Amino acid sequence: MEHYEKKISFLGENIQTIRKHRGMKQQELADKIGINMQSLSKIERGVNYPTFDTLEKIMDVLGVTPNELLSGEWKYIDHTEPYIMDVIKREQDFNVSLDYLSENEFFDDEKECTFYKAYKLIQYIHNYITNEVTELEELMEIKQLIQRQKLERMIKVHKEMRGLDRYREQPKEYKYHDPYDDWIFRQLADIDNRNNIPDTSPQVDFNEADYEDYLKAKWNRGL
């Protein structure tokens, strides 16, 4: 009897642990498996044992095997590795797809391909920096990376503009074909519009409504 009660206790605790790890509320799981929340609560507390049909639905929704639910405490750390490998694979697939875009016969010319590749890279970066779990420190690191790249490219173009040999011709290793056309340099240095670097004036542009929406979203996620 004691062994049976221990099994029920393990089962209920594991269901609760895995449910929380999946980011699901009790009512959400109850709705998906077709029982009321009170019944699920009793299962998770080890008061009742689920029927075989309910147990199958729980395993299906939570994505676990019978052995994982019944063989003792569920170690969620063991379940993170497949997700890591999946992310690595999708990242690699993304890199390969970008590398081979130029060979895709869909595009009429190289400019179309370049435009599409830039669009996908912007989308990728936007998805990362707007992710709910992205920390402020990470954004500061991205800022530093962008600043370094901006300065390095500006200095490179400056060097190419001034990199004329003794015959007033540009050396072959430089890609900037017209050293007297400073349009690229002006764009990089933000000379004309001065809008690449935003002003930081909370007295002017801090939006309290956006901040309240941000707090509500964090509250709803339980953070």
From TrEMBL:
<feature type="domain" description="HTH cro/C1-type">
    <location>
        <begin position="15"/>
        <end position="69"/>
    </location>
</feature>
<dbReference type="GO" id="GO:0003700">
    <property type="term" value="F:DNA-binding transcription factor activity"/>
</dbReference>
<dbReference type="Pfam" id="PF01381">
    <property type="entry name" value="HTH_3"/>
</dbReference>
<dbReference type="InterPro" id="IPR001387">
    <property type="entry name" value="Cro/C1-type_HTH"/>
</dbReference>
<dbReference type="InterPro" id="IPR010982">
    <property type="entry name" value="Lambda_DNA-bd_dom_sf"/>
</dbReference>
<dbReference type="GO" id="GO:0005829">
    <property type="term" value="C:cytosol"/>
</dbReference>
<dbReference type="InterPro" id="IPR050807">
    <property type="entry name" value="TransReg_Diox_bact_type"/>
</dbReference>
<dbReference type="GO" id="GO:0003677">
    <property type="term" value="F:DNA binding"/>
</dbReference>
<protein>
    <submittedName>
        <fullName>HTH-type transcriptional regulator Xre</fullName>
    </submittedName>
</protein>
<keyword id="KW-0238">DNA-binding</keyword>
